[in-house]
Design a protein that fits this description.
The chain contains eleven helices and no strands. By secondary structure, it is mainly α. The chain is globular. Keywords: Chaperone.
């Protein structure tokens, strides 16, 4: 990426993309010690999001990789299935691989977004959607997506269910570290929803 392209992305948008990517990373696989250490080093302000980040940091400081791997497996994998099914199709229709996934695949193709070869999860997984938003903001799939396109994608594929998912993650019986991550995700989704509501288009 050239310096000229780099300048086009405002600092605020970089921070948004970083938070989307962080959520995607944490939700795609259990964090290793390095990622837990990075979580432990985070600090927040007095806002809801800042307080949620502070709480995540405190829990990460006392969490070991083996423990969080068990937590991740209980939440998302389990015997047969985990406590939560983190897919748009499931949240919106009650079934996996339904119309929301087909609509997402069409929208991904239109934006030049393809599933990584080593990923076998349906594309409407929450981790994938967080990574897609982060990538669209900074231009990982071509040019950075204009705000109206970000808004369209968010309102269509994320807003209808992500807040509900993060609330469920907050309250899941197997959630410890992920309860804090749920609070971060829920607060961030509220900020994004409100910010997009206030933008024209």
């Amino acid at each position: 990426m050239s310096a000229a392209e780099d300048i086009q992305i405002a600092q605020e948008d970089r921070l948004r993309a970083d938070l989307y990517n962080f959520l995607g990373l944490m939700l795609s696989a259990p964090p290793d010690q390095l990622l837990l250490d990075q979580c432990a080093g985070l600090s927040g302000d007095e806002s809801d999001l800042g307080q949620a980040i502070g709480a995540l940091s405190r829990v990460a400081r006392v969490t070991k990789p083996k423990k969080v791997e068990s937590e991740f497996n209980a939440l998302f994998i389990g015997l047969g299935r985990g406590e939560l099914l983190p897919y748009a199709s499931y949240y919106l229709t009650g079934f996996l691989n339904e119309k929301p996934l087909a609509v997402l695949r069409t929208d991904m193709a239109a934006r030049g977004i393809t599933r990584a070869a080593n990923v076998f999860e349906p594309e409407d997984n929450i981790a994938s959607l967080m990574e897609m938003m982060g990538g669209m903001i900074v231009g990982r799939f071509g040019k950075p997506a204009p705000l109206d396109d970000q808004k369209l994608f968010f309102n269509k594929h994320i807003a209808p269910w992500a807040g509900h998912f993060f609330s469920d993650l907050e309250g899941a019986k197997n959630s410890v570290l992920y309860a804090s991550l749920g609070s971060v995700g829920k607060a961030f989704m509220e900020i994004e929803r409100e910010a997009f509501r206030l933008t024209a288009g």
